[in-house]
Amino acid sequence: MKKTNRLKKWAFGAIGSSVLLALGITSCGKKAFNNNEIIDVYGPPPSEFVDSLDQPDVEEPEVIDSTTIKTQK
Fold this sequence. Notes:
By secondary structure, the chain is mainly α. It has helices at 2-27, 35-42, 66-72. The protein has a domain at 1-46. Helix content is 56%, strand content 0%. The protein is elongated.
């Protein structure tokens, strides 16, 4: 009786892991969504999530080099 239960658990584990493996392979395949398809469906991200490096109104920090530090002391 114990051998059949152990065999059932092993069979379900093997089937479950193979299903998960198959799902992982198909999600990483060529038919998976890419960024352009997501933007086409949902639109661009909101403005608060846009990278601030290309926005002109962002203040750039002052660059301090070693000569400036020596003259301030």
